[in-house]
Design goal:
The chain is mainly alpha-helical. 71% of the residues lie in helices and 10% in strands.
């Protein structure tokens, strides 16, 4: 009787181990799209930080400079929306970039209480150097496991997601 109970229990445990996957396996198989996009963005930021560290600039600082560069002159509120950060964090970032001499705040002619943010010549030069340093290397590192057709399909699908 005891032997039969042990065999029965062992059979049940073996069957369960065969058919039930661990929680981590299930999580890795069904990662929601938003989480995957977030993980790719984190990988991109880690790579950016690695590439940019010799130039004493972080990925967040670089993205801020690029956003300012695209608009030439931008308000902090517009920049906050473009970067999807809170205004307090952005203000601290702008303070650091100002201290490094990469941006300047100018009075906003359309709003006496507001300011406009623009790159300084040093900031524009740094932005260009960073683009040259990172450009193709980052793209190649992010897409190294994809075929040319897969990269094109990925770009097309990501653009469809964006407004």
């Amino acid at each position: 009787m005891v032997a039969w109970a042990i065999i029965s229990l062992a059979t049940k445990l073996l069957a369960r181990a065969t058919f039930v996957k661990s929680t981590s396996d299930l999580f890795n198989e069904i990662i929601p799209l938003g989480r995957l996009i977030h993980m790719v963005n984190q990988k991109k930021d880690r790579l950016l930080n690695d590439y940019l560290s010799p130039m004493d600039i972080t990925a967040s600082q670089f993205k801020t400079l690029c956003s300012i560069r695209c608009e030439v002159c931008i308000t902090p509120v517009e920049l906050k929306k473009a970067l999807s950060v809170d205004l307090g964090a952005l203000t601290r970032m702008l303070d650091r970039l100002t201290c490094k001499g990469w941006i300047e705040r100018l009075p906003n002619p359309n709003d006496k209480r507001g300011v406009l943010v623009q790159l300084t010549p040093d900031g524009a030069e740094l932005c260009e150097q960073c683009h040259q340093l990172v450009g193709q290397n980052l793209h190649q590192e992010l897409t190294k496991n994809l075929t040319v057709d897969e990269v094109a399909a990925l770009e097309l699908l990501l653009k469809k997601i964006l407004p």
